[in-house]
Design a protein that fits this description.
Layout (H helix, E strand, L loop, with lengths): L22 E8 L2 H7 L8 H17 L3 E7 L2 E6 L10 H23 L11 E8 L2 H30 L4 H8 L4 H12 L8 H5 L1 E14 L5 E12 L7 H5 L8
Antiparallel strand pairs: 1-3, 1-4, 2-3, 2-5, 5-6
Helix pairs in contact: 2-3, 4-5, 4-6
The chain binds adenosine-5'-triphosphate (2 copies) and magnesium ion (MG) (2 copies).
The site of one adenosine-5'-triphosphate (ATP) has 15 residues, from strand 1, helix 1 and helix 2.
Enzyme class: transferase
Subcellular location: Nucleus
Protein name: tRNA(His) guanylyltransferase
């Protein structure tokens, strides 16, 4: 009663509910991670521990938010796909976005010591985020393909760049050297000059990281005869696989199934 005089201030709030029947993508990206990675001496071009930390946070995101059906990560970014029927916070964009970003950031800080036991966290990491609606599962596939192709292009360039720098070129010279080169030229350079077969580099670097739920067979216990008793369980899994081609999606149709 006493507060009713002030109630009208609520009317200034915008209704930011996202349209129904759309898949929702939340993409977060590390803020100034060029500097953050230098301050924490990340290995170049790919620091395995830093990527594993991002991936561990993404796995925890799927375990915490049941409406996230898929996540794809590369470098300092992660995309989270929420199913098209989600009623999470009535689909309010600012709620979904702020919760995703703040929960991920907290996980990153909490898990830091696990992945960098000998490195102190020197500055508070932060992530920006955006939310995008896509009306069809097919467009989600294209969105994810876009991110994975980007991962490939950047990783191939960065692998060349850092090998050139480590072999004595300045960063400027390495950049000049790579200007205008095609994918084929870069593979050739890596092989001829550095003895690196690009396709043999870790899949996590080349393909990025996918997180989703899958049926996994687990041994629950042994019976008296020593036979394993197995049970299939829905588990959050991490994989570094191709999601550009149709194979993954035809084998995992339940992920982007529409109601
Ligand atoms: P912004 O705030 O605009 O996102 P940024 O400095 O974070 O700026 P990005 O384009 O997001 O720029 O690029 C992220 C940078 O973080 C990369 O260029 C790379 O230097 C660094 N980085 C992120 N993850 C890793 C990693 N696992 N190993 C090495 N370097 C990394
Ligand atoms: P939502 O997730 O929708 O924000 P909420 O439970 O966080 O829900 P709010 O409307 O944000 O609800 O209200 C915050 C509530 O948190 C308060 O009503 C109060 O119960 C509790 N709270 C916040 N700060 C304190 C505090 N310092 N001491 C005691 N209780 C607090
Ligand atoms: Mg960034
Ligand atoms: Mg980035």
């Amino acid at each position: 009663m006493a507060n009713s005089k002030y109630e009208y201030v609520k009317k200034f709030e915008a209704d930011d509910r996202l349209p129904p029947c759309n898949w929702i993508v939340v993409r977060i990206d590390g803020c100034h991670f060029h500097r953050f990675s230098a301050d924490h001496e990340f290995e170049k071009p790919n620091d395995k521990n830093a990527l594993n930390l991002m991936n561990s946070c993404a796995v925890s995101m799927l375990e915490h938010f049941p409406d996230i059906v898929f996540a794809y990560g590369v470098s300092d970014e992660y995309s989270f796909v929420l199913k098209e029927t989600t009623q999470f916070y009535q689909r309010r964009a600012s709620k979904i976005l702020s919760l995703s970003v703040s929960y991920f950031t907290s996980l990153y800080v909490m898990k830091w010591k696990e992945f960098f036991p000998n490195k102190e966290l020197k500055a508070p990491p932060s992530f920006d985020g955006r939310v995008i609606c896509y009306p069809r599962g097919k467009i989600i596939q294209d969105y994810l393909a876009w991110r994975q192709v980007d991962c490939h292009i950047n990783n191939q360039y960065n692998t060349c760049f850092w090998n050139l720098v480590n072999s004595g070129k300045t960063e400027r010279e390495a950049q000049e050297f790579l200007k205008g080169t095609q994918s084929k030229d870069k593979n050739e350079l890596l092989f001829q000059q550095f003895g690196i077969n690009y396709n043999e580099l870790p899949a996590m670097f080349r393909k990025g990281s996918c997180v989703y739920r899958d049926k996994v067979e687990e041994t629950v216990k042994q019976d008296k005869g020593g036979n394993s008793i197995k049970r299939t369980r829905n588990k959050v899994v991490l994989a570094h696989i191709d999601i550009v081609g149709p194979k993954f999606w035809s084998e995992h149709q339940y992920i982007l199934e529409e109601e």
